[in-house]
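We close this part of the discussion by returning to an individual protein. Part of our work consisted of pairing the sequence of a single chain with a tokenised description of its backbone. The amino acid sequence and the backbone structure tokens for this protein are reproduced below.
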Amino acid sequence: MVCQKVPPGVQSGNATFIPEEYAATRRLNLDVRRHCTRHVKATNRILKTLLALCLSFTACRQAPTRGAGYEPQQGDIAFQSLPHNPLIDAIEGATASTFSHCGILHRAGTQWLVIEAIGPVRETPFAAWIAQARDQRYTVFRLKTPYRAKIPSFIQAAQSYEGLPYDIHYDLDDSAMYCSELIYKAFHRATGEDLGRLQTLGELQWQPHAEVIKQIEGGKLPLDRKMITPRSLSEAKQLEKIYTK
């Protein structure tokens, strides 16, 4: 006999006893439960692995262009979405576009750099430029064949603005520079042509962002101010989209 507590029914005096057969059955049940638990856990791990593989395969099938690789060329123009803040949301919202920043690629030795107006006009390593974007996504446009010969002049013109402060007022004078203004002016100096279309603030969807604009402009809404937006640049007839990540 084995002395253990059991359900009512088998008692002797103040002690409770279980027949050996009952104890053996209980041990068997415990062993079965342990085995089943291990089996279920192992099965769940297999199912999770299979699900992950299926999702990965599906993602690859649905987005074959992502991760396909981008080979930079001199003068490529890259666009990205910067992390959210009131100013970035105003740029993207007013232009109905995810593009809030852009720059020009050029090669220095073995390193690819982006000439950009973010803070002062400067040259940023391409890898660092990608890292500053939301989800590290970016889109690249390339000048069409008739404009390729102008690329050295285009890059030189952009570099001539290096060091200028960022233009928070988005004006087209040369005392400060914003990202799409830098590209627009450099291209115009190199080719004599406009890249994209100038628009006034009043033509954009400025209304939901009026308070942000007023804070920047000291309470005013300069609706007649002309500007060049990242979206307008991306729609220029001289460009063709070659890559999206």
Remarks:
- Residues 1-22, 46-67 have pLDDT under 50 and may be disordered.
- The CA atoms of residues 104 and 130 lie 13 Å apart.
